[in-house]
Write a structure and sequence with these properties.
The structure holds two protein chains of two kinds. By secondary structure, chain A is α/β, with parallel strands linked by helices. Helices cover about 35% and strands about 20% of the residues of chain A. The radius of gyration of chain A is 20 Å and the shape is globular. The mean pLDDT of chain A is about 95. Classes of the chains: A alpha/beta, B alpha/beta.
């Protein structure tokens, strides 16, 4: 070898999804992408742009506008040995497919006693802060994380996106793959070249500290890290954990951190009531109650149906980095 | 329609005497298995059973048109006779009724919800028409593997040599996923046959409360696929229509909607009481459509079987059903820890 190829490339999250999908299509002919506008348009965020020319309309399949059957058809393909990667154009549009995901995909292996499996990835962009109004900004994870048989992944760093998307495609069970759309082009990072996977169900400490544990995922991980860095200037030491996977969830990393910092703040965009934070709070209360020096706190989206289109309504819904920093400061001082 | 009976020669559609006798035996078997389910329920031995009485002609005819080892069946819960007809062991029917550990679902599923990968029977739920897109996805996979999906600039006729058979009742045709499935299958000219077993009743809702049209096949042209209606009480006629439709799918001709008419003589399930929504007179007015005595009389009339042979066949079938009932009943329930198996591949904990 005359020249060593670089070990990594700087990509944003759109590019990380795109390059991972591309490599999967290139290396495994069982894979195919189906969804609305994934073909000539190349997906509404241009993630699959140019794929149809290279892989053809059979594997880059523009579907009719019918989400239930996008997932349902993908299930049939998966049961017959293909590796479909279904796309729901916006997470808000996933509701018509609810039964196919919860009642069918998640139960295929179980109800057939392992005779049939459903290796299926459902990718969908979610989340707000992009003036998406009521139907282009919701978080859907809490509606699905109650469901055994389903895996849910929500990476927000480009390297994690690639490693977890590869893991999802390789996984023998159905995986819901959530991409926060505001991080798509906002977040850039080094992504290792070549094929690698990150195990589903492993969180990662993205910022180390010893006075408070912050657990978050999606867009807010990035803001939480910003807030933690800012507070480091005031000699406050905040640990930020990026969950990356919601089902299964990494209790080990959370408990290890909480036992060290003795305080837990959970931050998520989805509303608080019945959200991911509720399960984490309950688990920590059950497992580490006597290690805590302060009540667990959750900083979450307000309990309203969705964020409004008006900038004022959206800003009111979203949690600013300032609010995160304030909450962190209060928790450390408790 | 007693057309076939009134003709001097039997319209056998190329079926041999052995095949005709096989159909009769399959229909006896279905009827006795149905009765057995209701008996066991009334004896308190099983919590639930679903009957298909009236559907036997559809199942016997369709089973012969199905290519074992090649085609894929995506059935619904009233297709016990069809599953047995394409090779599922009769014991599985009883194991499913008794919810024994050796049942194909490991005792998890309701009766009549079979999955049998080696026979090409896909796993289904009880959610009406939720299986239709699965059938379409399987047909897409089948066509993709056989040489491509085709399209504007591609060869449109892809001979798969095999097909997917997707069955459902009249009530299913109200579900959105049913319509989505026909639409997608027609767009991609998939090798699939949609078979509607129209028994006039969706639990307690009659067809005229389910749709404003009289013929379900009238829904087909809107999606660009042909619809064929057949008297499903006549297994020979059903066989001929199903064979045509399946052959067309196998040869790259695309999907067909077949409507096979019949009448549901039993309540929806053992938990239903049809006296709350239909009269005994209505049921009796359809008795002439009962496919089992009708087909038996036809074969006796044309000398394919004698009355004695038919009686012996019935006795043999009853003996078989009794034997598998005893065999299944003697087997154990699944071990309680099986509740935790097959959630995912490998061991599973929600917290890692």
């Amino acid at each position: 070898m005359a020249l060593a190829s670089p070990a990594s490339t700087v990509l944003n999250n759109v590019e990380a999804v795109r390059t991972t999908l591309y490599e999967a299509l290139k290396t495994d002919e069982r894979t195919l992408i189906l969804g609305e506008d994934v073909g000539a348009r190349g997906n509404v965020f241009l993630i699959t742009k140019g794929f149809i020319e290279e892989f053809g309309p059979e594997r880059i399949l523009d579907t009719p506008l019918a989400e239930a059957s996008i997932v349902g058809i993908a299930i049939g393909m998966a049961m017959e040995g293909l590796r479909p990667i279904a796309e729901i154009q916006f997470a808000d549009f996933i509701y018509p497919a609810f039964n196919q995901i919860v009642g069918e995909a998640a139960k295929t292996r179980y109800r057939s006693n392992g005779d049939y499996t459903c290796p299926l990835v459902i990718r969908t962009p979610y989340g707000g802060g992009v003036r998406g109004a009521l139907s282009h900004s919701v978080s859907i994870e809490a509606l699905f994380y109650h469901v055994p048989g389903l895996k849910i992944v929500v990476p927000s760093f480009p390297a994690d996106v690639k490693g977890l998307l590869n893991a999802a495609i390789d996984d023998p069970d159905p995986v819901l793959f959530l991409e926060h759309k505001k991080t798509y082009r906002l977040v850039k990072g080094e992504v290792p070249n070549g094929h690698y996977t990150i195990p589903i169900g492993k969180a990662e400490v993205k910022h180390s500290g010893d006075q408070l544990t912050v657990v978050s995922y999606g867009l807010y991980v990035h803001q939480a890290i910003d807030a933690a860095k800012r507070l480091a200037g005031d000699n406050l030491s905040i640990e930020v954990i990026d969950l990356r996977s919601i089902r299964p969830m990494d209790g080990t990393t959370i408990l290890e951190s909480v036992r060290k910092t003795r305080k837990l703040l959970i931050i998520h965009e989805d509303n608080k009531f019945g959200g991911i934070g509720a399960e984490i709070s309950a688990m920590v209360a059950e497992e580490a109650f006597f290690d805590l020096d302060a009540p667990i706190r959750r900083l979450c989206g307000p309990d309203v149906p969705a964020m409004g289109y008006a900038a004022t309504l959206e800003e009111e819904f979203m949690i600013s980095t300032d609010r995160m920093a304030d909450a962190m400061r209060e928790m450390v001082r408790f | 329609m007693a057309k076939a009976m009134s003709k001097p020669a039997l319209e056998r559609q190329g079926l041999s005497d052995d095949q005709l006798r096989w159909m009769l035996r399959n229909m006896y078997l279905q009827r006795m298995l149905d009765n057995r389910g209701f008996q066991l329920n009334r004896q308190g031995k099983i919590p639930f059973a679903t009957g298909s009485e009236g559907h036997e002609g559809i199942h016997a005819g369709t089973a012969l048109a199905f290519a074992r080892g090649k085609d894929i069946l995506v059935p619904y819960y009233r297709d016990m006779g069809l599953c047995v007809g394409i090779g599922m062991p009769v014991l599985q029917v009883l194991l499913s009724m008794f919810a024994r550990g050796k049942d194909v679902s490991g005792g998890r599923q309701f009766p009549n919800h079979y999955s049998y990968h080696s026979l090409g029977i896909l796993s289904i739920s009880s959610i009406i028409a939720a299986h239709c897109p699965h059938a379409v996805g399987a047909a897409y996979a089948m066509k993709l593997r056989a040489g491509g999906i085709g399209g504007p600039s591609r060869p449109d006729v892809v001979k798969t040599g095999r097909a997917v058979l997707c069955t459902f009742g009249d009530g299913s045709t109200s579900q959105g996923e049913w319509h989505e499935s026909l639409n997608f299958a027609a767009i991609h000219k998939l090798p699939i046959v949609f078979l509607c077993e129209n028994n006039e009743w969706a639990i307690s809702t009659p067809r005229d409360r389910q749709m404003a049209i009289a013929d379900i096949i009238d829904k087909a042209p809107g999606y660009g696929l042909p619809g064929v209606k057949v008297d499903g009480s006549d297994p020979i006629a059903t066989y001929a229509v199903m064979k045509d439709a399946l052959d067309r799918a196998r040869e790259g001709g695309g999907p067909t909607l077949v409507e096979a008419t019949c009448y549901r003589f039993l309540s929806h399930t053992t938990d239903d009481d049809d006296r709350t929504y239909r009269t005994r007179d209505e049921i009796e007015s359809h008795r002439h459509l009962d496919p089992v005595p009708r087909f038996e009389a036809l074969l006796i009339e044309h000398g394919v079987v004698s009355s004695e042979e038919a009686s012996k066949m019935k006795k043999d079938v009853l003996a078989e059903v009794n034997a598998v009932t005893d065999e299944a009943e003697a087997l154990p329930y699944p071990a309680p820890e099986e509740l935790y198996a097959h959630v995912y591949e490998g061991p599973y904990e929600p917290w890692l």
